[in-house]
TrEMBL record, chain A:
Keywords: Acyltransferase, Transferase. InterPro entries: ATPase_NBD, Gcp-like_dom, T6A_TsaB. One of its GO terms (molecular function) is tRNA N(6)-L-threonylcarbamoyladenine synthase activity. This is tRNA (Adenosine(37)-N6)-threonylcarbamoyltransferase complex dimerization subunit type 1 TsaB. Its EC number is 2.3.1.234. Residues 35-132 form the Gcp-like domain. It is an enzyme of class 2 (transferase). The gene is tsaB. NCBIfam families: T6A_YeaZ. It comes from the Bacteria.
Length: 182, 326
């Protein structure tokens, strides 16, 4: 498996996040699209594939963002990922998109962070995370929040899910997918 | 040219369909129906349909491949319904198929749902032009098929789709879903018939209308008329209407060949009516009249064999897409 690449994908937010990683190697891309992620996804994937010099047949695992976010939007990454996985017999793992968005900002022993994705009807999707012993700790699970319910510290507003974070979180991810329809 | 394997996917509404076609012959056709899930709500709930498609699609595709005894790498092309349909539902099967095609490095074909229905009824060796009636729970369209990919719309329903009318009348009569086979079964038990007027008797064009029949059925149910006689009367009028419009179009255009596609094609009384009329009529084989993946694979196979280029993976799914633009 050492020679295999991991494909990461997230379409739960207005950003299209994707990347191909193998140990320290790899390239991630984040593009703000708003809608229609499915039209841009494969072109960007092709670019990343060429940039890292990987072959499609070398994709051994996928880590996909499970949301929360737009229901139709988040399913794009999941459906595309399942199709890629079928071709290669690859394993599929799911990670919370909110965790993937705040992972680059979490510090060992540092304060909890609450990434927020703007939802409809003046609501936010939010969850609170810590990093302890190099692992993510979910302090508060993903849920819908009103503006007056937001914590006063450690807020990250609409951070893009990070493609490399999805890869780094693979050891803590579950195999299989559990889309978050909040 | 070696063996051509096509995998076709349809998730345009509430059924997840995966089919495999080898050299134009259907080998596997699996449909995971969501009928029971939506029955409780009295109709298809789009968001629920999309969620179910996502759960079902990979296991269904794996089972289809296993049943055919092939692996993904044996596929020559991958095809999926691009539209029309429920956008959230379409996107699941369509994006899954793109992912599969991309990862295999194989051509991808974005297929029009109604071209799939027509392909399911189109026998090998039959050359266009001919007429095609697509009548299902979501569509009632009459086309002139000039060639593969060249269609002229002659008429369509002004209100309910034919299958939708059967579903609604079935519900009025306390029957199950889908309504077509249920109404047909009850009508066969009838010893008498309550006559219904045939809609749009003197129209200039080739349109259809079923809502009047449905309203009439409602009034008659409220009056307490015998259900079997009512089912028979409704079915006779609905079929007479479909037949009148199609036969008028055949006479005006001079076409002698008709394809009847979509779920309503399974109605035996309708099949008999067209055969009586002296048209050469083709129906889809059993299992291919309802929404399914094999019909999408058949349409893609035809396009591929005729040298139509594959679809770019940047082409998005679409809820609205006239067949004339496919």
């Amino acid at each position: 498996m050492g020679r295999m690449w991991t494909l990461t994908l997230d379409t739960a937010t207005p950003y299209l996040s994707l990347g191909l990683f193998r140990g320290e190697e790899g390239v991630g891309r984040v593009v703000r699209l708003g809608r229609r992620h499915e039209e841009a996804l494969f072109g960007l994937l092709e670019e990343v594939l060429a940039e890292v010099g990987a072959k499609r047949s070398e994709i051994g695992a996928l880590v996909l963002g499970e949301g929360p976010g737009s229901y139709t939007g988040l399913r794009i990454a999941l459906a595309a990922g399942l199709g890629v996985a079928l071709a290669q017999g690859a394993r599929v793992y799911g990670v919370r998109s909110l965790l993937a968005a705040c992972w680059p900002f979490l510090e060992e022993g540092g304060p909890p962070l609450t990434p927020l994705f703007t939802a409809r009807n003046r609501l936010y999707y939010g969850a609170t995370y810590l990093k302890r012993g190099g692992k993510p700790v979910e302090v508060l699970p993903p849920r819908k929040l009103k503006a007056e319910e937001l914590p006063q510290r450690g807020l990250l507003l609409d951070p893009p899910p990070d493609p490399r974070a999805l890869y780094e979180l693979l050891p803590y991810a579950r195999e299989g997918l559990e889309p978050l329809y909040l | 040219m070696g063996t051509v394997w096509v995998l076709g996917i349809d998730t345009s509404c509430d059924d997840t369909g995966v089919g495999l076609v080898r050299d134009g012959q259907v080998v596997v056709n699996l449909v995971a129906s969501q009928v029971r899930l939506h029955e409780a709500y009295g109709g298809v709930v789009p968001e629920l349909a999309s969620r179910e498609h996502l759960k079902a699609i990979r296991p269904l595709a794996e089972r289809a491949l296993a049943l055919a005894g092939i692996t993904p790498k044996d596929l020559s092309l991958v095809a999926a319904t691009r539209g029309p349909g429920l956008i959230g539902a379409l996107l699941v099967g369509y994006t899954f198929a793109k992912g599969l095609a991309w990862a295999l490095g194989k051509p991808f074909y974005a297929i029009h749902h109604l071209e799939g229905h027509i392909a399911a009824a189109w026998p090998e060796g039959l050359d266009p032009p001919f007429l095609a009636l697509v009548a299902s729970g979501g569509h009632t369209h009459l086309y002139e098929v000039l060639d593969l990919g060249r269609y002229r719309l002659l008429g369509a329903t002004r209100d309910d789709a034919a299958g939708e009318a059967f579903d609604k009348v079935a519900r009025l009569l306390g029957l199950g879903f889908p309504g077509g086979p249920e109404v047909e079964r009850l009508a066969a038990e009838a010893e008498e018939v309550v006559p219904f007027p045939v809609p749009l008797k003197d129209q200039e064009g080739y349109d259809f209308s079923f809502s009047g029949l449905k309203t009439k059925a409602l009034h008659l149910v409220e009056k307490g008329l015998p259900k079997a006689a009512l089912a028979k009367g409704f079915q006779e009028a609905a079929i007479a209407h479909l037949a009148e419009v199609v036969l008028k179009a055949a006479e005006d255009t001079g076409h002698k060949v008709l394809l009847v596609a979509g779920g309503v094609a399974a109605n035996r009384a309708l099949q008999a009516r067209f055969k009586e009329a002296g048209l050469k009529v083709y129906f889809p084989p059993k299992g291919l009249s309802q929404d399914n993946g094999a019909m999408i694979a058949l349409a893609a196979w035809r396009r591929y064999m005729r040298g139509f280029p594959p679809s770019p993976l940047s082409l998005g799914a679409t809820a609205y897409w006239p067949l004339e633009e496919a």
